């Protein structure tokens, strides 16, 4: 079941049929956090997440994705508003929709990793984690630009 919110001429919807993969991939492949990501990986991530599309006059202009178990934890990622529509409070509207989604109300914790627009996330209740040895991450920084990414190690069960 999809959810929908409206603000003036803008809509946020979780209807996966409305998502425009070309727009999502086009933005992400040039973003600082997913530079070079291929379309297939974007499609797979979209298919396995709760996605929020931001629309103006039925055209997609923004996106956010929540990776979640719908019980205790959610990870907000890939949040963007196309540059032509930035500065009008639409990023906040989009993130507020992710926080207020009915299926996410039982989550104890939502996580966001970002180096951009911290003020936006603070306005909707996110807080920085500045405790030593509390938040940890494992990152393959060049995964979209190396040969390891193209080898299907997990499915074959072999490593070289």
From TrEMBL:
Signal peptide (residue range): none
Q: Which PROSITE patterns does the annotation name?
A: GNAT
Q: Which residues form the N-acetyltransferase domain?
A: 1-146
Give the top-rank taxon of the lineage listed in the UniProt record for this protein. Answer: Bacteria
What molecular function terms (GO) are annotated for this protein?
acyltransferase activity, transferring groups other than amino-acyl groups
Query: SUPFAM superfamilies recorded for this chain?
Result: Acyl-CoA N-acyltransferases (Nat) (SSF55729)
UniProtKB keywords: Acyltransferase, Transferase
Extract the Gene3D superfamilies matched here: 3.40.630.30
Say yes or no: keyword Acyltransferase present: yes
Q: What is its EC number?
A: 2.3.-.-
Name of the protein: Histone acetyltransferase HPA2-like acetyltransferase
Lineage, opening ranks: Bacteria, Pseudomonadati, Pseudomonadota, Gammaproteobacteria, Enterobacterales
